[in-house]
Write a structure and sequence with these properties.
D-amino Acid Aminotransferase, Chain A, domain 1; 8 helices; 24% strand; 33% helix; 12 strands; five-stranded antiparallel β-sheet; alpha+beta; four-stranded antiparallel β-sheet; 3 domains; Dna Ligase, domain 1
């Protein structure tokens, strides 16, 4: 017990001492978890182990479904987490009632736009699920055409935003062929992003916003890390800023 570091900054050390960790331990790293191991975050939190980044932020970064449950007040109305056929059938009724036609399906643990699917009707999703084309859980939301897709990077007092566009694909992700241009956020939009981060206990984040022609804006996704393609900040400066944030959080834990 006496050999356990007070602060653990790598996954190898974390799992070497995993069963001996207690409230006197601070884990200052993103925990490497295989699919299905997310419950370890709950165990660590229950034992009083301090996590930097927070357990909530780490889990939300791994799960679009959890994001939907956590940030539903900040997302496009009608965005739903689908866990099984019963949830899907309830959502079909909701969309029918609201006369929602085109819908987007977001697959769990798929990034860079590779898990995004567009359907002309939510009933088509049910047919696909019946044929086992998609695994539960996943997220569905109404499709909003002619919207702007803005990526926001917030690292403490550093903020950068850029719009992603693709004239030939509704997926604006740069990985899918999109291009980027700098974007200036309003003070209200910045405040919105920081409220989202506070709700999810994100000390830093990459946020994706959906901006409508009516001036509305909604959260589509949030993550602790993301690609820097399209951003002006360099990888080295980005890494240094993350390290500084971690050190500041550690200092607060051990003043």
């Amino acid at each position: 017990m006496k050999n356990i570091p007070a602060v653990i900054c790598d996954n190898d050390t974390l799992f070497r001492y995993y069963n001996q960790l207690s409230e006197s331990t601070v884990i200052c790293t993103r925990i490497r978890l295989k699919p299905g191991e997310e419950h370890l975050l709950t165990d660590l939190a229950e034992r009083g182990v301090t996590l930097i980044p927070s357990a909530t932020a780490q889990l939300a970064s791994r799960s679009k479904v959890f994001q939907t449950r956590l940030f539903s007040d900040y997302m496009l109305p009608g965005t739903c987490a689908i866990y099984d056929r019963h949830t899907l059938l309830d959502t079909i009724s909701l969309y029918r009632e609201q006369q929602i036609k085109q819908v987007v399906l977001k697959r769990e643990r798929k990034n860079s736009g590779l898990g995004i699917h567009l359907f002309s009707d939510i009933e088509d999703i049910y047919n696909q699920v019946t044929g086992r084309a998609f695994d539960f859980p996943f997220v569905v939301q109404p499709f909003k055409p002619d919207c702007r897709d803005v990526r926001v990077i917030i690292l403490d007092d550093f903020l950068e935003a850029y719009e992603r566009r693709n004239a030939h694909n509704f997926r604006n992700n740069l990985h899918c062929g999109g291009t980027s241009t700098p974007f200036t956020l309003s003070e209200k939009q910045i405040s919105f992003c920081r409220k989202v981060m506070e709700r999810g206990r994100f000390s830093y984040a990459h946020l994706d916003l959906l901006l409508t022609r009516k001036g509305e804006y909604w959260l589509t996704e949030i993550n602790l890390r993301g690609g820097l393609k399209g951003a002006k900040i360099s990888g080295e400066v980005y890494r240094q800023k993350i390290e500084t944030i971690h050190q500041q959080l550690l200092t607060r834990q051990n003043p």
